[in-house]
Each structure stands twice: as structure tokens, then as C-alpha cells.
Amino acid sequence: MTSSPLLLLTTAILLLLLLHLPFHDSSNHDYRDALSKSILFFEGQRSGFLPQDQRIGWRANSGLSDGWPYNTDLTGGYYDAGDNVKFGFPMAFTTTLLAWSVIEFGDSMPSSELRNSLVAVRWATDYLLKTVSQPNRIFVQVGDPNIDHNCWERPEDMDTTRTVYAVDAPNTASDVAGETAAALAASSMAFRSSDPAYAETLLRTADRVFQFADSYRGAYSDNSNIRDGACPFYCDFDGYQDELLWAAAWLRRASQDDNYLKYIEMNGKTLGADENINEFGWDNKHAGINVLVSKEVLEGNRYTLESYKASADSFMCTLIPESSASHIEYSPGGLIYKPGGSNLQHSTTISFLLLVYANYLAKTSQSVNCGNVFVTPKSLRLQAKKQVDYILGDNPMGLSYMVGYGDKYPQRIHHRGSSLPSTKDHPQFIACKEGSIYFNSTNPNPNVLVGAVVGGPGEDDVYDDNRVDFKKSEPTTYINAPFVGVLAFFVANPYPS
């Protein structure tokens, strides 16, 4: 049977159209399902005594003696990634971003997921309160990472040294103390309506911890007794100054105390506010500070802080390809790319700032002047949506980078608990080096860490699903934390305006 010329022409046109379509129809994404899973992930990262309602059933109690060298209780909190160490610096940042997700986008969450988000925040804040429970001392880390990284064992089996790292005044820890103050202040806002007494405790403690951070200025990794434990993993590479401004901005937002605004005005220049660094992550808060402080300016409260809004505007312009100021790197498939590994941490944090700033602009009916183009809140939201949809599967690999979401996702993530058989399936102890056979195996992980967002592909959009390649295959709490807020927005606004 021969085809007619008209049929051949129609087929050719359809093929051409298909070639120019996105990789997948992003309207098919179930943002609510992704949101639920992104929050569930944190239960897989829990340390300490697990509660009765623990939903990730292959995890069990771990780190139950944490704090014993100081005769103090440091159980709880989160393992930051695929290892069994509790690093205070990224954990505090994770907490701030989880709380900020609730503050900005909690109204977009289904009530059950709002409740789960607050549970995730509280698992962290209960621990952070323990780390600052003693006067003029902050516990910044539990676990020796060099020894821990030499093993491949379940957190439930840990027999490595649970070294406790503490900083006592007048030694310096402005970065960790500042981020902890920011986390507690932001969390106080998240709990204000559901648990006002707890919120008050968080805010009061945040103020005290900020005074410690500001009184003894310097980085925690400058201390010789901390450096070998923190570096090169979560060393302070970018200085402690941004955490002081970040903490002050959050304390201002949570307390509405004008003294914190004055602090930002008086200390901004000396603490690097004018550097306009377009970074946002566990180590560098500058872009986040600019967005957060811009809210004051947009609402007409403080024109003396106009430079922060100008920096936030400038950052947004760098993210818009149509802008003459655009200079951020994108992969061929459209993913925001920054060298250094664990790339999706940049995509999720930047997407979060895009949506937060879009909200601030929309509430005051403003847009951003990027020279050759005016960028509206809708433009910023659409830019964030491209990143979200890429992560969820609209990419050249056709792969969801969130474990357990979609039909195709990473199977061999760099994560001890996920890659080793659970204590339920294998109750026998697995010692430090005995886990190596599981690490080196090419088999999929036996336990699915639902909701984990991995480090992601390289600049060429390629992902090999290799457990050994930790830069690509390791999930972290600070990749997921901002993604909770981002997904919450798209649950309520799948087609942003």
C-alpha cells in the first residue's frame, strides 16, 4: 500500500514539530507527589532515636551516644549526605532553607505536607538547640569525617569515633553560630502559629547565639582543633562575614526589632555587602541576603538598604538568558551549571531565590530593569520552572534526579544506608570495611531513599548512575531543603503567571 503525497507531507510536518518539542511534557509532572517525596527524604537522614511514625522503615536508631565525650546529649539532627557525620554548618543552612520554604510557600502546601515540613524542621531545631545549650560554647560537629569516610557502614552499625567538635569563647565560630542563629530565627517564624511557646524559645536562643557569633568574629575552621574535622569537607571557604549579615537579617524578619536593621546598615560595608557575590549555598549567603533584605526596601521600610535590592536585581538579570547582563552558565539541556560538583545544589537554591523574589516583586507590583529587557515576576517563575522540570525528568537523559519520582531515576546513589542491606533484612553487624563489597557492587541499592535529589549531571547533561562518582550520585540535605519550597509553589501554581 503506497502513501499519498499529502500523507507523507503531514507526517514530515509532525516529525519536525516533534523534534522541536521539549524532552517531555512538563505539564505531566505531579508536583504534589514530588513535594511529598522531597520532605520524606529527611526521614532517611535522621540520626538518633527514630519515632514510632518513622515512614522510611529501613532506617533504625543510630548515634545514640553522641555527645558523651562532653557528658552532654547531642543525639538527633541529620546526617548531611551519604555519610554518617553530623556537620553543623550545612545542617544549620538546611534548617534555615526548610523554615524559609514554610514561611514563603507553606500556604501552597497541602496541610499534611505542611505538617510534615514542620516535623522536618523541628528534627533539626531540637538538635541545634542542644548544640548551643551551654554558655559561650557551640558544638559544631559530631563524627570524625576522615575516619568515617574510610568506612562504608550503616549508621546503625557505626563503630567509628564519634568525635565531638566544640568551640568555646573567645575562639571563633561566627559562620556556624551565625547560620545557627539564622536557622533558629527563621524556624521561630515557621512555628509561630502552631507552637508559639517553642517559637519564642527559638527566637530567644537565636538572639543569644547571634551575640556569640558577633562578639568573637572569625571562622570556625580557623580553629586548629576544628580544622582537621571540618576541612576540606565543610571548611569556611568564603569567610564568616556573610553569616553575620544573614543572621541579622533573619533576626530582623523574625523579631521586627529595628536594632537588627541598624546592624545591617552600620556593618554592611565592612561585612562585604557591597561585593555583590552571585552565590547562594551552605558556605556563601550573599545572594540570599540580598533577596531577604530587599523585602524591606520593596515594602518601603528602609531606603538606606537600596543597595541590597540593586544587588538582588543584578543577580536576577544574570539568570535571564534574554538579558544583556546574563552570564550564568547553562548546560545544553538548560540546567544551571556551576563547576565543582554536586551541581543541583545550585539549581535548587537559585530556583528558590527566583520564586521568593518573584513573590516580593509581585506583591509590590514591580519588575526588574535588566537594561535591554524588563523582567517580570512571571519571567522569574518560568525560569525556575525550567530548572524544576529538568530535575524531575525534562532533560536529555530522560531521568528524574529525584529518587523514587517517575519511572526512571538513579538506582546507585552514593549513600551508605541506602546501598547496604537494612538491619531488618540483615540483622548481623556489618563492620567498617565489610561494606566495601556493597560500595563496589554494580547492583542497584537495596533500599530506596525516596525523595533524595542527587548531585546531578555534569555540564554535558550526562549522568552515569555510578555510586563511586559521589559528586554526581550523592544526595545532600541542602539540595533538598530549598526544593521543598520550590515544589510547594508549583503545587499551587503549575502554570505560573
Automatic annotation (TrEMBL):
InterPro entries in the record: 6-hairpin_glycosidase_sf (IPR008928), 6hp_glycosidase-like_sf (IPR012341), Glyco_hydro_9 (IPR001701), Glyco_hydro_9_Asp/Glu_AS (IPR033126), Glyco_hydro_9_His_AS (IPR018221)
Domain called Glycoside hydrolase family: residue spans: 31-487
Enzyme Commission no: 3.2.1.4
Entries under Pfam families matching the protein: Glyco_hydro_9
Superkingdom classification of source: Eukaryota
GO molecular function, one term: cellulase activity
RNA-binding is among the record's keywords: no
Catalytic residue list: H414, D465, E474
Keyword flag GTP-binding: no
Catalytic activity: Endohydrolysis of (1->4)-beta-D-glucosidic linkages in cellulose, lichenin and cereal beta-D-glucans
Residues that span the membrane, as ranges: none
Enzyme kind, highest EC tier: hydrolase
Keywords: Carbohydrate metabolism, Cellulose degradation, Glycosidase, Hydrolase, Polysaccharide degradation, Signal
Signal peptide: 1-26
A GO biological-process term: cellulose catabolic process
Family that this chain belongs to: Belongs to the glycosyl hydrolase 9 (cellulase E) family.
Protein name stated in the entry: Endoglucanase
Annotated organism of origin: Dipteronia sinensis
Species lineage: Eukaryota, Viridiplantae, Streptophyta, Embryophyta, Tracheophyta
